[in-house]
Amino acid sequence: MGRVAIRLLVVDDHAAVLDSMVEAMSAAGLEVVGTAASGYAAVRCAATVRPDVVILDVQLPDVTGFEVVEALHRCGALVILTSSRSEIDYGNRVRESSAEGFIPKHELTGARVREIVHSAATGGR
Amino acid sequence: MRQSVPARSALVALAVAVTVVAQREQLSQQAPTSFVVVDAAVAGAFVIAGLGAWRLGSRAVLGTVAVVGAVAWQVGTLAMAFQDSPITFPLFALSGYHDLALAFLMLAYPAGVLATRPRRAILGLLVLGYAAGSVTRLVAFDPSAWGCDQCPSNPFAIAADEERFVWLQEWTGRFLGTIVATIAVSTVIRWVTGSVVARRAAGAVPVAGMVWAALFLQDTFLRPVNELVIGDPAAFYVMAAARAAIPLGVVTGLLWIAVGQSRISDLFSSLDDRDGRDGIEPVLQAVVGDRRLEMWWRTDEGTYARSGAPNHALAAVDADRHQVVTTITADDGAVLGLLKHDVALLDDQRFSTAIHASVRLIADHERLSRQVISQLDEVRASRIRILAAAGAERARLERDLHDGSQQRLVSLALQLRTARNTLGDDDPGGFGDTLDRAMKELAEAIADLRELARGIHPSALTDGGLAAALPLLADRIPLPTAIHVALPGRPPAETEAALYFVAAEALTNAVKHASATTCTVDVRIATGQLVLTVEDDGVGGAIVTHQGGLRGLHDRIETFGGTLSVSSDAGCGTRIVATVPADPAVAR
Fold first, then answer.
1. Residues with Cβ < 8 Å from B517, sequence gap 6 or more?
2. What strands lie across the sheet with A78-83, from one edge to the other?
3. Inter-chain contact A16–B414, Cβ cutoff 8 Å?
4. More confident residue, B218 or B247
5. ∠ Cα B165 B169 B170 (to 5°)
6. Partners of B577 in the beta sheet?
7. Is A17 on the interface with B (CB under 8 A)?
8. Average pLDDT value over all residues in chain B
């Protein structure tokens, strides 16, 4: 698998966690082009910087991640939901959302992100 | 007036004995059978009326006077039956007192007392007239001295003088006749001007009284007073019928009133708590037999409003001359309302007391109900507040765990992973293994913490409601569980939490105690109620103990105006059904 420079927008309202995520993604060779701490900030930012992928925390102070997935898609980004809770804590909502994937926050790795991006690119989600 | 049963029996026995003796004597003297029958029948009517009045209770004096009247009626017959013997003179002197008894009945009916001063005065004059007549007949009457050869001589005649006797008898007779006529006329006036209720109670008394008074007048003004034998048998029969009709009319009226009294129990059984104030007026109208009766309740503004028409309030309530307005007060003297009713109701103290009591009862009942309901509302509201506060506290704890410790651990996990990735495969010191172990430990710690947070308050419930939270609950227990949630929308958060915790406790019990192999959870709306059913196929035998988990669920569900039922027969599994109103506003 060739190393394509994937441009990321990372969204989380906990500063320490956001830093750790950015650090982990950068270390994994992904390009973090922006960060945001709320749902609306994420949409605004995505419209400007046009990332390839948004790593989107579900629990945000203004809206839930689910509610901005569509808006982010309209900015041309893939959306990967993440949370310190696990997927089942949200019942069907992760599956019902149009996000490309879900990664538990502490399991967030460059490899998982690439996997999802690749899967989306090949149309086999 | 209270008499013992023996005294009453003795009085009746006396009346019967006097009648039997008098009529046997008459028959032995070849008196016409019809005369004997009618004469005895009048005595019988008096006795029957007396027995009836006694039996009806509250107006025993009317009964006593009626039976005494029977005896008095036969005294005259005895005087005629024994006119060959000197005993005829004291009997003759004491004859005619049945009319005094009738006068008393007419004056005292239906209350059993002489209610007004004029009535007492009239009876007093009548007694004086009768006493004067008796004395005259005893001491001034001696027919043997006035040319009656068969007549016995009167041993009491200390002032016998025919002219004086006739004059005295004539004038006492006219005096008495006038008074009797006055009584009859006033009774008729009372009847005509009285209310419907009063008229019904009076029955035939006024008519009989008029006939009686007319013949009495005819008797005292037209018949020669020294004739002992009654001249015109037809007049005697009519008079006898009128005399018999008065006590019978009185007892019939008493019976009518008694029927009303027996309806006191109807009154109390007819009062329906649910109808409250508005329900009492028709009940009272029916029981009293007075369709014009009106119940006016006092309003908070101090005016009076009739049941069913709260907007038409009056400062005072007027009555016409057939009606009176009585004030009904509570035990503390506060005015509850005004009752407008027929004046005749006042004749019956017991009945009107009962009616007042019933109105008080309704008012008290309503006041206490209102108090209890408002207290109950307050308790229920405070229970909901306590539960809501506890729920909010749990949600806050969960959020704090999530936002605080969990975020730190997650951040740490990400950093460790970054470090591990940075280290790569080039790992001379074997740090990589240590880092892997630390990451594994950390992942478990994060999972534990997440589990703890879920137990405190499932975020899935907050985010996605029962449809999201219940499947999650099912995933966490080692038991195949089918979840079916069919709700059109989301119930209020407290209701959702209550149902969620019922399901959680029921599933925990199924795992821990029931040895169940499968479980089903069903949530749906049925007839305006949210119904949660949790069923397992375990051993059954669950009971709601005072401190058990089920008890707590019970309290939780009751708080929202719902019910919790547990059917858990041994060997037949356990079925727990929690039902709460779908619209909590209805429950409160």
1. B479, B480, B537, B538
2. A31-36, A7-11, A53-57, A78-83, A101-104
3. no
4. B247
5. 115
6. B533, B565
7. yes
8. 83
Contacts of B409 in chain A (CB under 8 A): 106
Give chain B's length.
Answer: 588
Tell me the nearest-neighbour CA distance from A59 into chain B, angstroms: 10
How distant is the Cα of B448 from the closest Cα of chain A, in angstroms? 11
Q: How far apart are CA B179 and CA B129, in angstroms?
A: 10
CB atoms under 10 Å from CB of B552, counted, come to 14
Confirm or reject contact between A96 and chain B (CB < 8 A). Answer: no
With beta carbons under 8 A apart, name residues in chain A contacting B412.
Answer: 20
Average pLDDT over residues B490-503: 88
The chain-wide mean pLDDT, for chain A, equals 88
Per DSSP, the residues of B13-28 read HHHHHHHHHHHHHHHH
Q: Is the pLDDT of residue B586 over 50?
A: no
pLDDT of residue B534: 93
Region B174-193: what's the mean pLDDT? 86
Query: Does the bond joining B110 to the residue before it have cis omega, within 30 degrees of 0?
Result: yes
CA-based nearest distance A12→chain B, Å:
11
Note whether A90 contacts B464, CB cutoff 8 Å.
yes
pLDDT of residue B249: 85
Closest-CA distance, B520 to chain A, in angstroms, reads: 18
| DSSP per-residue letters across B44-83 | HHHHHHHHHHHHH-TTHHHHHHHHHHHHHHHHHHHHHHTT
| Per-position b or e across B135-164, b if 16+ CB within 10 A of its CB | ebbbbbbbbeeeeeeebbebebbeebbeee
In this predicted structure, the answer to whether residue B201 has a pLDDT above a threshold of 90 is: no
B377/B270: higher pLDDT: B377
Contact B418 A20 (CB under 8 A): yes
- B85: which 2 tokens? 């013997």
Bridge partner residues of B581 (DSSP): B529
pTM of the complete model: 0.49
Q: Is the per-residue pLDDT at B1 higher than 60?
A: no
- CB B143, CB B83: distance < 8 Å: no
* Model confidence band, residue B331 (pLDDT cutoffs 50, 70, 90): confident
Residue B11 C-beta-side C-alpha neighbours within 13 Å: 22
Give me the sign of the Cα torsion angle B346, B351, B353, B355. negative
Q: Do B446 and A106 touch (CB under 8 A)?
A: yes
Q: Do B446 and A84 touch (CB under 8 A)?
A: yes
Tokens 């839930």 — which residue? A64
Distance between CA B581 and CA B587 in Å, rounded?
Answer: 6
C-alpha span between B317 and B340 (Å, rounded):
8
Which residue, among A59, A54, A93, has the nearest Cα to A72 in the 3D structure? A54
CA–CA gap between residue B467 and residue A123 (Å, rounded) = 30
Q: Which residues of B touch A23 (CB under 8 A)?
A: 414-415, 418
Tell me if A53 sits within 8 A of A78, measured CB to CB: yes
The pLDDT-based confidence of B223 (bands split at 50, 70, 90) is: low
Among A27-41, B27-41, B84-98, B354-368, name the most confident range: A27-41
Mean pLDDT of B130-134: 90
Q: Which residues does B contribute to its contact with A (CB < 8 Å)?
A: 402-403, 406-415, 417-418, 421-422, 442-443, 446, 450, 454, 458-460, 463-464, 467-469, 471-472, 475
